[in-house]
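2024-03-11 09:14:02 DEBUG pipeline.ingest accepted 1 chain
2024-03-11 09:14:02 DEBUG pipeline.ingest length=255
2024-03-11 09:14:03 DEBUG pipeline.predict start
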Amino acid sequence: MKSAVAFVTGAIGKAAALALAEDGFKIGVLGHTLEDISTTVDEIQEKGGEAVPLLADIADEGQMAAAVQQLVEQYGRLDVVVANAGINGVWAPIDDLTLKEWNDTISINLTGTFLTIRATVPELKRSGGGSIVVISSINGTRTFTTPGATAYTAAKAGQVAMVQQLALELARHHIRINAVCPGEIETNIDTYTKLRRENETAIPVVWPEGQVPITGGRPGRSEDVADVIAFLASDRSRHITASPIWVDGGQGLLR
């Protein structure tokens, strides 16, 4: 895999980029601020890997196309795509959620995934195949108790539907596509969360040791998700496509 190239976006993307670089991939690290992605690129390069920063708004068609073109011009091909960028957005009662708030969440989480796949599939075809890993969530796929998260849940469910819809379409091109569905993971996504009137939508859950049974309540780590992404990016998962894989320590079964 030393000549293979991966395109990685988003918060969990740092851990994924580092894991893929360890496996010999050259990495395109995409983000909307240079500060966020430069740290990841520097860390990969310090460990002897190859990486390039790609600056783009995940929901902007032109910027995404330009970022993919920059990556292919740098390394000559594309083999793996990790579509991970997303926000929690606003969580509020349905009659309090504004259209703008809905559109902002759908635009980044669902339309951003569409634009990522749309921009990268032609390059995967040119490479003779590859693997796409979409980062969804337990929300909308396994659990529906997060207070007020209607837009977020709809987007995450839509990502899994997109994965399953595209699996057969892309199979003839030897492109596999799967979804990883994390539970509570230590990332900075809470920075982009606004919770409003939670008491009107919350579903009480009583669990004496927190909401992640396998860790005694502690959130998972980005590396827990990155290890699964690295597996799906590799030939070890060559017979897996259209599959949602939950990485939640049992949280989704509880909630």
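2024-03-11 09:14:41 DEBUG pipeline.report The chain has a mean pLDDT of 90.
2024-03-11 09:14:41 DEBUG pipeline.predict end
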